[in-house]
Specification:
- The chain is α+β, with helices and mostly antiparallel strands.
- The strands form two sheets. Strands 1, 2, 3, 4, 6 and 7 form a six-stranded mixed sheet that branches. Strands 5-8 form a two-stranded antiparallel sheet.
- The longest helix has 22 residues.
- The C terminus is likely disordered.
Length: 174
């Protein structure tokens, strides 16, 4: 067990209202982006990582995390579009509007060859810029990292199956 687990869980509980605010801001921005682009998405969701999920993550990652703010997906949001071209358009505006942590962001679509199939999605680790939202009483809103995932319906279906089954292998198409 992480020596920091108890402290991280305490910070998590203390900052739940801030996480909730961040979750709402990100979801509103993703909805605005879809509306501006006139893209109908099958889902735009946001969530705060559950205490159980957080606890499991801390257990799995050992001493990687010293504080709750080291965890980049306490707040997560997802946009599910119908077509890959729509994913790219949404991603373009996400890149313009949010502060992107390139070191921790990943385009999982680039992990596979043409003859492979597996989990693909864009994962951006972001912060809310002050130009989007600022509250001088709660400056943490602009300092906490969150994850935005953007994918197609097909990618989302695969991800759901992949997550539920715990399937870790790539499927290669002959």
């Amino acid at each position: 067990m992480s020596v920091f687990k108890e402290s991280i869980i305490k910070e998590y509980k203390e900052n739940l209202p801030t996480f909730e605010k961040i979750s709402n801001i990100i979801k509103e921005q993703l909805e605005k982006i879809a509306n501006e682009l006139q893209i109908e998405c099958s889902a735009i969701t946001s969530r705060i990582k559950s205490l159980d999920s957080l606890s499991n993550k801390i257990e799995l990652k050992g001493n990687k995390y010293k504080t709750v703010f080291d965890i980049t997906d306490i707040v997560g949001a997802r946009t599910v579009a119908f077509h890959q071209s729509e994913v790219d358009k949404i991603a373009s505006l996400v890149l313009q509007r949010f502060e992107i942590d390139w070191e921790n962001s990943i385009d999982k679509r680039k992990l596979y060859q043409v003859n492979q199939f597996g989990y693909v999605s864009l994962h951006y680790i972001v912060k809310i810029p002050k130009s989007m939202y600022y509250d001088e009483k709660n400056p943490l809103i602009n300092k906490i990292s969150s994850e935005i995932q953007i994918r197609t319906n097909l990618q989302h279906t695969w991800a759901s199956i992949f997550h539920e089954s715990g399937y870790k292998s790539n499927i290669e198409i002959p």
